[in-house]
Amino acid sequence: MSKKIKNIVKVIVFVAIFMVLFCMMGVFISPNGTYEEWFQSYSVIEFYKRKKNTVDMIYVGNSCIYTGVSPLEIYDRIGVTGYPLSTPRQKLWASYYWMKEALKYQKPKVFFVEVGEAFATKKQNDELAIRRSIDSMKFGKNKLEMIMDSDFELSNFDKLSCIFPILRYHSRATKLKETDFRKLVVKDEYTFCGFFVNKVIKGYKGKFDKKAKQKYLELMATTKVENTTEISKESEEKMNQMIELCKKNHCELVLIKIPEPRDWTPEKNQAIAEYANRNKVKFIDLNYDENINIDWETDTQDEGDHLNIKGAEKIGEYLSNYIKQNFTIEDHRNDENYREWNEMLRRYKEDKSITK
User: Would you give the DSSP letter of residue 124?
Assistant: First the structure.
């Protein structure tokens, strides 16, 4: 081998080793997967630990999902498996890519998409929400497409830092803890199939009228006032793509609104309902459904923004009935291939029984 070729090989080996170390440092330095800072990231990180093609339902959206939808409540009742792929303030242009990512590993029968963020525009992008949506996803085609999507409005540097997190989080280098270096080897799971059990009771102090929707519709019918609340252009584009994605993969799409009295209105309900009717997709609004019976004094953990375990139990009961009535899905509770779900259910019930 000539000296020139040897030098070229040395350079290639050096660059390869440097890139591996550079990427590894990015994993350790990134707050993604840290217990203290980005604990919510475990909701999607642990999705990758599920056995391939064992999840029937995927619930996608913002933090209302991982605090309000407990897959094990539904599994306990009807034997249908599920997983929430949700991150804080997740916009629909992020939810779309998490749906695509889910389809790499699972063949869900139904996607439930939380529509609370359907009225957000690109102007309401914030870096923390974007990074929490992007950084938790495994590197691959979907992540690259997500980074390059103009809806996120990332600069060239930000795009590069999503691929090499060390560029964004280098300031954490002096704050690393032992837990940062155990990310790649820790086997513990901190969620129950992506759901966070929260037993805190902090009631909603405002007013919420379950009959507000009916009163609003009656007013609209009599006065013929036009609804000025509109789904944002970027959200509607992504919702259209979600519909096509579901058609292509032979699964159904259900738009859902988890109870959230602070920000939800009859006008928003109407805008989503009209979109659902135009596009022939299902829509369920749990704010106004009399069958859900949320008690805002006991069923919320933070004065109405997110449900606690009491609220999640009611959501689980409602969705179990809804799924059973609208879809034909096998009950896996006595299936030997789903033993891990029965074990998770046992641990989940134990955790719920422990008083705070």
Answer: G
The answer to whether residue 22 sits within a structural domain is no
Does 274 map to a domain?
yes
Distance CA 72, CA 56 (A): 12
* Tokens at 38, concatenated: 């980005």
Summarize the confidence of residues 75-104 as an average pLDDT.
97
Structural domains counted in the chain: 1
- Checking if the pLDDT of 31 tops 80, the result is no
Comparing C-alpha atoms, which of 276, 280, 277 is closest to residue 255? 276
pTM of the model: 0.90
Q: Which domain holds residue 200?
A: 51-124+189-353
CATH number at residue 313: 3.40.50.1110
Q: Whole-angstrom Cα distance, residue 308 to residue 319?
A: 16
Using DSSP bridges, classify how beta strands 110-114 and 282-285 pair: parallel, antiparallel or unpaired: unpaired
Is the distance from CB of 253 to CB of 102 less than 8 angstroms? no
18 domain residue, yes or no: no
Which value, to the nearest 10 degrees, does the dihedral of the CA atoms of residues 312, 316, 318, 324 take?
170
